Amino acid sequence: MKALLTRLAVQNEIGLAIGEREIAVSQVAATPLGRVEVVQDRAAFEPGGLAEALEKLLAKHFTRRDLERARVSVGLPALRVFFSTRPIQERNLQASPEILLHEVLQSPTLIVDDMVVDLIKSKVGFRPLASIVSCHKKYLSGVLAALQSCGIVPTRAEPSPCALLREAVRRYHPPRNSRGFLRVFLGRGQGLAVLMAAPDMPLMWRPFDLPGEGEAEAVLATVASMRILGSYCGLDSEVDAVLIHGRADLGGLADELGANPGLQGLQILHHGGPGMDAADVATGLARGLRSGSEAFNLIRSFGGRTSFRDLFPWGQAAFQVAVLLAATSWLNVQLRAHRAEAEAVRAEDAKYPWAAKSSAEKLLGEKKMLEEKAAAIRAFVETRIPWTSYTHDLSDRLPADLTLVLFQGYQELELIGGRSNGKPKRSLTLRLNAPIPRTGAMPQEIDAFLQILRDDPLLKRDFPKIELGDLRWRQNGVNPATADFSVACHPLESGASKPKP
């Protein structure tokens, strides 16, 4: 599985942690599934045997071609490196790293030319700081010679605590709103305390011995001294948390330190890793830097290997290519849809070849005329009264004793364009006759029919105002006498309410 991931890797990173008596190697492959550690190993060596031990260790896992293609980062032991952070004045913002190192050490016996120096400038709040790291050229040249004998030209050489700190930051974040805290790394017989001013900004570190029976006392003494020295490194706030990493066997160490009166008020957390171990340092080196972060590089002045492949932002390029492909695919789908619509429109236009012979002005005139006709028809249909509905409705509601003589409906057409002076007039007139009884009384069917009309939903909608017109007595020869009457139906006048029944 590891061999397959190595073949699928877009980029291989190798980390070499060099200690005083031990070296460790780690390889992290950047695969489509993410970063995966595929190699981790270590080996001990005697003084003067670094090159031989390094060659044996690397030959177990890599070929010369693998080492030439991979990016190799080297970690130097903390005891071989000087590190300090100091506030700098505005006049020294452009000073060289050698000048700042000389001002920090203030030693007349130190020859700065014998040192390799690297510098990172930063800010804590509004205070400019300079983080300086240096080591002897003689020691670094010996390490580079041992690497060169194995065919390695490293891309970066930094202090081992930086790689260890980077691995701890990746796994565990400090408490929220913490402005100053300590990370303490524990190992077998030794430890390392790092003073932090930001989630990933070290101000100072100090190695310390870790005896077998007095771990708590050693950590307590180191934490106390680091809290005192914080102000000299530019930390303008108190240390409010301690994060302990490594030595999972010391599970009660956090509680023991928390019970000490000198650490009252500090938040103390204990995490299983990474510890003060060469393997964890190598893993931190192999995982590389986060995007946009800075790191020390003591071989910067040596002209270490910096190829185009190392400088090119592969991650950003891959992301932008993916976005470009997705946008191109979406645009291609939209283009196909528009082309299909255009083809359908052209096919529809082909059915009317005569339209191609007419001018655009003529077609627009015809279109305007048709729109006016359609508007007139629409207005007529929406406002006209369906008289056939009334004839059917009244024939169903007409009593058997009444005879409908006249059905007269009137509706004034609504003018298009708003030229009418008011609402169009409309009315419905009915003329009926009813037989008069022998008693000569007025027929009751008239009142009953008026009530039927007032309850008719169709009339309520269009002609809710119903009135009885003229009423006449008619006698014609031998025929029985009849009562002729008319009913006038009108719509409500604007602003008037419907009459109550």
Task: Tell me the layout of helices and strands.
Elements: H1 2-8, E1 11-18, E2 22-31, E3 34-44, H2 50-59, H3 64-69, E4 71-76, E5 82-87, H4 97-105, E6 115-124, E7 127-136, H5 137-149, E8 156-159, H6 160-171, E9 181-186, E10 190-198, E11 201-209, H7 215-229, E12 241-245, H8 253-258, E13 267-271, H9 278-287, H10 308-311, H11 314-350, H12 353-357, H13 360-383, H14 387-397, E14 403-411, E15 426-435, H15 444-454, H16 457-462, E16 465-474, E17 482-490
Parallel strand pairs: 1-4, 4-8, 9-12, 12-13
Antiparallel strand pairs: 1-2, 2-3, 5-7, 6-7, 9-10, 10-11, 14-15, 15-17, 16-17
Derived from helix and strand composition plus strand pairing, the structural class reads alpha+beta
**CATH class category label of the largest domain:** Alpha Beta
User: The CATH topology of the largest domain, please?
Assistant: Nucleotidyltransferase, domain 5
Estimate the global geometry from the Cα principal axes: elongated
Explained architecture:
It is a single chain. This protein has 501 residues and is of the alpha+beta class. The protein folds into 2 domains: 311 residues, Nucleotidyltransferase, domain 5, CATH 3.30.420.380; 104 residues, 2-Layer Sandwich (Threonyl-tRNA Synthetase, Chain A, domain 2), CATH 3.30.980. It has 16 helices and 17 strands. The strands form 4 sheets. Strands 3-2-1-4-8 form a 5-stranded mixed β-sheet. β2 and β3 form a beta hairpin. α2 runs parallel beside α5 and α6 crosses α9. The longest helix has 37 residues. It is elongated. The model has no long low-confidence stretch (mean pLDDT 84).
